[in-house]
Design goal:
Structural class of chain B: mainly beta
Radius of gyration of chain A: 14 Å
Number of helices of chain B: 0
Number of strands of chain A: 11
Oligomer: heterodimer
Number of strands of chain B: 9
């Protein structure tokens, strides 16, 4: 079955760190760019970060640049998001997403989404 | 990285057509043909409906179509059905090598 399963969310105090994981299955993981998109409770979607198939191209939203680090392990078919210096405004459901077009680093639509993992930043 | 502007809500009767607008700038929608549209039902993950402005992935109903003019993209839903009731988000690649999402439009089927 083609799917993405996120994990690693939870309750964390401001200023602390958390690492999210996304396990991919059912498709050739190393053929696709991957992204993280978040959604604060009751709010809209916000793109967080993206990484191309071989980790050569990585980008971040200004709101997380310098605090979050995206990475991937193509052997383990996994995507990660290391989140440091967390703030209350980082509270959201974090989705990992696979792009539609494979074998390319060009901009793309987000075709496959996980169920999300909730991150709550609060003291 | 300001969000793309969408109407907060739209509604239509079954069988009618509605067009959702998505307003951006010359640095995103106006420059790139990388506009996508997502449908999100309550408590569910988003679903890709349109990418590359007009491309409809397999499995997405032909009732959904996309277009773009200058800095504004549009999603048209023809023959509105009850299951189309959801929140719709647009997205565009931008000149800062990032993606910007829209504010979301809640579609209600009357």
């Amino acid at each position: 079955e083609v799917q993405l399963v996120e994990s690693g969310g939870g309750l964390v105090q401001p200023g602390r760190s958390l690492r999210l994981s996304c396990a991919a299955s059912g498709f050739r993981f190393d053929d696709y760019a991957m992204h993280w998109v978040r959604q604060a409770p009751g709010k809209g979607l916000e793109w967080v970060s993206g990484i191309n198939w071989n980790s050569a191209n990585i980008d971040y939203a200004d709101s997380v640049k310098g605090r979050f680090t995206i990475s991937r392990d193509n052997v383990k078919n996994s995507l990660y998001l290391q989140m440091n210096s967390l703030r209350a405004e980082d509270t959201a459901l974090y989705y990992c997403a696979k792009v539609y077009w494979g074998s390319t680093s060009r901009p793309n639509g987000f075709a496959l989404w996980g169920q999300g993992t909730m991150v709550t930043v609060s003291s | 990285q300001s969000a793309l502007t969408q109407p907060a809500s739209m509604s239509g009767s079954p069988g009618q057509s509605i067009t959702i607008s998505c307003s951006g700038t010359s640095s995103d929608i106006g420059y790139y043909n990388y506009v996508s549209w997502y449908q999100q039902h309550p408590g569910k993950a988003p679903k890709l409906m349109i990418l590359d402005v007009t491309y409809r992935p397999s499995g997405v109903s032909h009732r959904f179509s996309g277009s773009k003019s200058d800095n504004t993209a549009s999603l048209t839903i023809s023959g509105l059905q009850a299951e189309d009731e959801a929140i719709y988000y647009c997205s565009s690649y931008s000149s800062s090598n990032t993606y910007v999402l829209g504010t979301g439009t809640k579609v209600t089927v009357l």
